[in-house]
Amino acid sequence: MDAAAGNPSPMHISRRRFLRGAGAAAGAGWLAPHLLLSDRALARALAAVADPRGTTLEATLVPVGAGPYRRLAEGPGLPTTVRTLGADPRPGREGRRVARASIVHLTDVHVIDTQSPARVEFLDRYADPPSQSIPFSSAQRPQETLTTQVAESMVRRINDLRRGPVTGRAFDCAVSTGDNIDNQQFNELEWFVTLLDGGSVTPNSGAPKRYEGVQDLEATSYDQHYWHPDNEDPNSDFYKRYYGFPAYPGLLAAAVAPFIASGLDVPWYTVNGNHDGLAQGNAPGNAAFEAIATGSVKVVNLPAGMSPGDFQHGLIRQDPAVLAALATAPARLVTADAGRRYISPADYAAAHFGVEPSSPGPDGHGLTEDNLDRGTLYYAFEAAPGVAGIVLDTVNRAGYAAGSIDPAQFAWLRAELDEAKAAERLVVVFSHHNLRSMNNVFPDPSTGGARITGAQIEALLHEYPNVVLWVNGHSHENRVVPHPRPGGGGGGFWEMLTAAHVDYPQQARLVELADNRDGTLSIFGTIIEHAAPPSAAPGATDVLSLAAISRELSLNDFQVDGAGALGRPEDRNVELLLPHPYGSTPSGSRDNERGDVARAGAGELPATGTSLDGRLAVGAAALGAAMVLRRRGEVDGNPVS
Q1: Using one digit for the tens of pLDDT, what is the confidence trace for 128-143?
Q2: Which of 223, 249, 521, 532 lies 20 to 30 Å (CA to CA) from residue 103?
Q3: pTM to 2 decimals?
Q4: The domain 90-115+144-179+191-210+382-546+575-596: what is its CATH number?
């Protein structure tokens, strides 16, 4: 794969075949000292190590069929789009570059307790066509009972890949940038942490082994506004009648069944989002809400005479009249569950400590004892050698979905940036909210002071040329935004948003930072699908089949702009160039290069641009492998010209 253009190379060699060829060459005496490669030739040979398999560089899923209900099938891979910000792509950078970081970006996983009495699914109908501008489309989704299976499917994909597809660098870490859960509930957080750490997950609450939610067949509360997978009558709900949704008998029972989560094989870090810190992502939690969440009465429609807007704002502002009206709203009985209690910031932090097994770590997943003591959820960590990760907590606990930060966090951010600059470390900022959505100025009584919005944070980041990337989510879309430094001085930083797990297209992104050794940096962003097949076999209820059903349902969710969430080509697989803040590789880089060789692991090839000894050894192996493959006349089954 040509990393710059994203086009298939005629000399693409799979890792397995490359290594097998190298071994054969060594046995045949091909690796004589005079066969060492130049840096450029070595880079071309090592380009074969970068493996597109399992990513959208190789293949992606595309909708098929005329509708109204469409399926998914495997389609061709997506190219890599080169974008520039104050630095032009220079020829031969593939042969010079050194991988500096390889990071997995997860976001908006939204692990959902779909049976919670605290959910307000009945608002969802107000986002049905033609009134889709009303912001209630996330109140209920046809696929939302399957969020844990989607998360597990993504973990399996990441564990199978193990390294960046462009540089070949093993993953340094994974970062999940908020809305990890949906409704600020303790049980949802337990499921999320277990999904990423590994262990037994039972994505059920209330009644053991039985689903009690709006999609079941309970006669007293059956509502045609929801998709009911167990009802095989094609006219049994609006999803089947008007949009062609199929029935999936047994799906709800399978969705709440326990399974063993694989757990990530790499260290992972947590970020707080508005759904992690606010009820339904909008309202400050309180004792009245918690009593509803843990109790046995589930409201199933608005109180008489109340508009959806008045209801939403009343909950956020904790209007006593609205809370009192809930007692008169239509409701059903469900099984109470204390595990649905609301969590505080300190509870959120504590849930990440002392988890068994302790691998992949780190304990706290970025959060520290200081976070526990102070109830804060922002921190800094080493994303990779020479690369600082700075995690912001952008949740405004005064309410509403948009974000901002408090003055104390802003001062802390400046101090962290000063420290990273003094140490000549590149900086990647992580948050839940993106700059466009950081405009929440409601005063937060828990922190005090005027809220700091995205424009103020952007201005601060522009003071530090070593800030190269801001990674976030919240908008449930793939998008890449350049932020040039004001005044036309060149440079700036890139902002990278990745689509949600809970909504179509259910993707994640692999982020690779590379020093091109020519005064420029390249940031690669490569989209990945989760491991589930394009579609499930009839009647299948294993974890990956359930994840496949979820993705298919999300494609057909008529309240979501699927094409917009996918993003444009320049928002998906990208190479983002910008000036290197230090002009070339910072001091200490040789140690980093030697570390890259060690990171490659026994029996595997290091990333392009390893130390001199590594280049010599791998260069000989590369040439030997290439010669053996040419002599055989094919590379991965394709004729070699």
Answers
A1: 775 554 555 578 999 9
A2: 532
A3: 0.85
A4: 3.60.21.10
H or E stretch covering 298:
strand 297-299
- Angle at the Cα of 154 (from 560 to 142), degrees rounded to 5? 35
Q: Which residue, chain included where needed, has tokens 């609450």?
A: 205
Closest CA to 100 of 493, 612, 462, 608: 608
Under a CB-based contact definition with an 8 Å cutoff, are residues 334 and 252 in contact? no
Give residue 354's region: left, alpha or beta (phi > 0; psi -120 to 50). left
Judge whether 607 and 600 are in contact, CB under 8 Å. Answer: yes
HSE-up of 565 (CA within 13 Å, CB side)?
A: 22
Nearest to 183 by CA among 170, 174, 175, 192: 192
pLDDT tens for 325-354 read 888 899 999 999 999 999 999 999 999 999
Name the residue ranges covered by the structural domains of the chain: 1-49+605-641, 90-115+144-179+191-210+382-546+575-596
355 contact partners, CB below 8 Å, separation of at least 6 = 193, 194, 197, 363
Q: With the CA atoms of 141, 145, 146 and 151 taken in that order, what torsion angle do they form, in degrees rounded to the nearest 10?
A: 90
pLDDT mean over 291-300: 95
Angle between helices 147-161 and 543-555 in degrees, nearest 10: 110
Question: By C-alpha distance, which of 379, 335, 49 is closest to 211?
Answer: 335
- On whether the CB atoms of residues 90 and 518 are closer than 8 A, the answer is yes
